[in-house]
Every structure is written in C-alpha cells, then in structure tokens.
Design goal:
By secondary structure, the protein is α+β, with helices and mostly antiparallel strands. Helix content is about 35%, strand content about 15%.
C-alpha cells in the first residue's frame, strides 16, 4: 500500500522511538482526550505486536519452538530461574549505558517473566532509553527507575 494508507506508527523500531517521534505524553494517563487515549492505546498494541513479530524472526528455531509450546522461560513464573542467565546477558549488553544499574527478572500478571532494566539518574521519557530493547531473547523488556522496584 502507498504511504498515506500505511500505519505510520509501525515504521518505528521501538516503543520509545514511537513515543518520542510522535510526541506522545507519558505517562499515558496524562492524555485527557478519550479519543486520543483510544488511538494511542490501539497504536501501542499494534506496534508491540509488530515489534514482537520482528523479534520472533531473529530468534533461533529452538527459542521459537519453546515459545510456541509455552515452555519458554518468559512464559511461566516456575521457569524464572532459567531467565536469570538471559537477564545477565542483557545486563552485559547494556553495560556501556551509565544509567543502567542492573537487569532483573520480574514476575508479571498472566504468568509472564519480564526482564526489568533498572535505571538511575535518567527520566523514563529520556530519548537515550531508545538503546534499551523492547524485546530480548523472547522476553519483553521494561525500563524502570531503580527506586520503584527492588
């Protein structure tokens, strides 16, 4: 489809780049217009799915198989210990960023394990956070202030 009919938000390579590029207020609760909230939440969902689909293509066949079977460490709190080496690998990958303090494994709703990237001395809206991936080795990655969760 030509450009006018393409969903522009799907051109971004990260959720943070989309937020920055489109000037979307954070937190999303700062948006007061219900129509705008609906638009932003719809675009966020579409972009997350698009980015995860791209991420899946980068994974090994074995990782994709585990995800498809529901046996990937990101898909079950009981597999949280298997996620620790992956958290450490992401921490090593992000070591060059002075605001990244540590990476941990968080148990989230719907029995998901997520990689939490704890940052300090930086706002979560800071454009430098675009270097923190949205997904890593089959896990969702969330940046949060170090003081918020320990």
């Amino acid at each position: 489809m030509p450009w006018p009919f393409t969903k522009r938000h799907l051109r971004y390579r990260s959720i943070r780049a989309w937020i920055s590029g489109e000037g979307i207020p954070t937190p999303f609760t700062a948006i007061k217009d219900p129509k705008r909230v609906d638009q932003v939440m719809t675009q966020l969902g579409e972009l997350r799915k698009h980015l995860f689909d791209l991420h899946l293509r980068s994974l090994s066949e074995q990782q994709r198989k585990l995800l498809n079977e529901g046996k990937h460490p990101s898909q079950d709190h009981a597999l949280g210990s298997a996620a620790l080496p992956i958290a450490r690998a992401l921490e090593d990958k992000l070591r060059h960023l002075p605001f990244v303090k540590r990476v941990g494994v968080g148990a989230y709703h719907c029995n998901r394990n997520v990689l939490d990237v704890f940052v300090s001395g930086i706002e979560l809206s800071d454009s430098r956070l675009v270097e923190v991936p949205d997904f890593y080795e089959g896990f969702e990655v969330l940046a949060m202030n170090e003081t918020k969760k320990s």
